[in-house]
Amino acid sequence: MASSEGIELHQAVVRAFAEARDWGQFHTPRNLVLALAGEVGELASLLQWTPDDEIETWLMDDANRLALEAEMADVFAYLLRLADVAGVDLAAALRAKTQLNEARYPQDRAKGSAEKYTKYE
After folding, report:
1. Distance between CA atoms of residues 11 and 4, nearest Å
2. Least confident segment among 19-28, 81-90, 107-116
3. Does the domain spanning 4-98 belong to CATH 2.60.40.10?
4. What is the per-residue pLDDT across 16-29, written as a single tens digit (0 to 9) for each?
5. What is the DSSP string of the chain?
6. Distance between CA 48 and CA 60 in Å, rounded?
């Protein structure tokens, strides 16, 4: 599971980058959420029209792999920054959400199923 220390180190890097450029004034939670949504859209656009059975081949192309990594890094950076600005402990939030999902999706009933948790209630 994710450790708070590792996440905090990454947050410190992103925070220092933003502070060195005086971008804190622009990093409101709303602005960061919108930026994050935009970056997720850019990430999605890389694979949007690639059929599932061609993804593995797509990922073997160095240019595609680099583009995917760059967009994933952008998403991660904005998520880290949002959590930092909003005072959210991402590691703790992930642990809590995982526990909730363990209850929502009992292994014996949800295994191999893509149904929403409300089906298991």
Report:
1. 10
2. 107-116
3. no
4. 999 999 999 999 99
5. ---HHHHHHHHHHHHHHHHHTT-GGG--HHHHHHHHHHHHHHHHHHHTTS-GGGHHHHHHSHHHHHHHHHHHHHHHHHHHHHHHHHT--HHHHHHHHHHHHHHHS-HHHHTT----GGGG-
6. 17
Per the CB < 8 A criterion, the answer to whether 49 and 106 are in contact is no
Burial pattern 83-93, b for ≥16 Cβ within 10 A else e, equals: bbbeeeebbee
d(CA 10, CA 31): 20
Domain borders along the chain are 4-98
Angle (CA) 70-73-77 rounded to 5° is 140
pTM score of the predicted model: 0.89
